[in-house]
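Hi again,

Forgot to attach this to my earlier email, sorry! This is the prediction with NAP bound. I've pasted everything inline since the attachment limit keeps bouncing my files.
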Amino acid sequence: MKRYIRKRYCGPEGLEVVNIPTPEPAEDEVLVKVQATSINPADSHTMRGTPYFYRLMLGVSRPKNPKLGADLSGIIEKVGANVNQWQVGDEVFSDILSVGAGAFGEYICVKQQHLVRKPNGISHQAAAAVPLAGITALQSVTSNGSLKPGQQVMIIGAGGGVGTFLVQLAKHYGAEVTAVCSTGKAEKVKMLGATEIIDYTREDYRNCQKAFDFIIDAVGNCSASTAKKLLKPNGTCLLIGWGGFGHLISYILYGWWIGLRTDRKISILTAQFSTADLSTLGSLIEAGAIVPVIDKIYSFKELPQAIAYQELGHSGGKVVVTLSNE
Ligand SMILES: NC(=O)c1ccc[n+]([C@@H]2O[C@H](COP(=O)([O-])OP(=O)(O)OC[C@H]3O[C@@H](n4cnc5c(N)ncnc54)[C@H](OP(=O)(O)O)[C@@H]3O)[C@@H](O)[C@H]2O)c1
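Structure tokens for the complex follow:
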């Protein structure tokens, strides 16, 4: 089988394809034939070892684990002796970033409880677009208490992998969405459920005259003071995008001060993998409430180009890599 690895921290051009024996599942594992994977900014952070403090976990001078890749959709090819949840031929999807098994390979072994049934009626390519971005979006709109119908929500970075899920989920929970995106993404984002668009290439959302119950920043450029200005009393601003170390520190420090002195809440979300949340997303997809939005599909051979494209930071939905001929 083929797998992408990196022996040292590098850009996409430094990835190597290795030919290795197909792994055998342990007693509580299944062997999955990966049909599709998708690219996330987290893959770049892991590949490059940036921001540098990540290396305290990943390995200081070189990565401890050469494997990469979070999202996968695939078909179970073999099951371990103690596997009772799955059978050969079952279609599954997951985000395996936290277990480091590496979705950028033709086959992977995963513990049975880490997988979720792939939603019916969508391709593996569409399913692979869901896990990490979808779970982040779902946890964003359900953290701090779910969104309530009629609430005003601003989503910054609405046209991206996480943003396209955020718009649809906020709309699904009954919120009125003001989306911040670039000109080329405005139509698509409106179709996904935004009622108002702020085209950031023409106007600055910081000057918006409206007040919001909830701001979700999937870019990392909303300062705590801007959030304080744009939030309604009891409103919350949630930072999920990486806007650099300086932004993070000032957001935390000033956000803490704002939290003490006002009734606004300034908070940060780090998404955690959850099979329950992924199942919820699968059900919402099957019910037609949300759809995975795919920007581009690359072949397995083109995976480094897919990462390079994603790293430009202007994806219109998810960047998917297919290993099947769907
Ligand atoms: N906290 C967590 O647990 C967590 C989990 C997943 C992802 N993330 C982070 O969330 C961020 C978004 O991830 P993603 O997967 O959605 O990335 P993505 O697919 O690359 O999307 C980023 C989007 O932001 C838009 N954008 C860029 N500059 C903008 C600006 N100034 N104003 C508004 N929109 C702008 C881009 O397109 P246009 O410029 O063309 O509009 C693009 O659509 C990343 O920083 C990622 O690291 C965090």
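The longest helix spans residues 245-261. The chain has two domains: 2-130+292-322, 133-268.

That should be everything now.

G.
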